[in-house]
Model the fold of this input.
Amino acid sequence: MLEEKLITLSVDMFKLILLISMPTLLVSMFVGLLISIFQATTQINEMTLTFIPKILSIMVVMVVSMPWMLRLMIEYTESIFHMIPNFIF
Done:
């Protein structure tokens, strides 16, 4: 019984991690793809060209989605605190 609860808790944790990291990863991938297409069409082969737009786009996504991410993390933390009595023998 305890093992099932711990496994469920771990699965929920990994789902939360994926859900929280998905917006930044998707934006980073999309911006990288756009810059790669730009580099291929203009034949500019500068390796450092991708860093600044990616960093800026990730910062914007983090600022915009921070309330949502924070709410999910707080809800998960509260659920863990409410589960503590179930894990005490």
In short: The chain has one domain: 2-87.
